[in-house]
TrEMBL record:
InterPro entries: DUF306_Meta_HslJ, HslJ-like_sf, Hsp_HslJ-like. It comes from Chryseobacterium shandongense. This is META domain-containing protein. The keyword Signal applies. It comes from the Bacteria.
Amino acid sequence: MKTIFVSVLCLLFSGMLLNCNAVNSNTSQNTDQNSQIYREWMLTSFGSYSKSDLIMKNAKIDLTEKAEDGKIKGTAFMGCNSMFFTSELKNDGKVKISDVGSTLKACQDMKLEMDFSTAFRNMTTYSVKGHFLTLSDDSGNKMEFIAADWD
């Protein structure tokens, strides 16, 4: 009787350990996938702008803030004003950009900033592949970024 009781107890305990391990494994995998987005991203392709123009303007977005309630408060820079926004990135590849604003400096060339601000608000999907981030809208327009910490 004692042997049966110990055997059943060991079996239940083993089941609990395996179940906990599966939950931790899945949580770790989701965290790794989501953590790829928490970087500073340099804009490399957008509309008719050349890559060298974007590099010269130091065009980038920063998503390094800690997410709160599934939303990341980010910043952007397109050569003149500091921009800020809230992004909500879903596991299904959807993104919602809201609360876009900026400082109010007047600079000689603000075309990139104005074009980016208008297009950025309309982005609806995202994908991260390695060190590359792509944002797209429903019309097929894209913004492509590379991770700033990638050599």
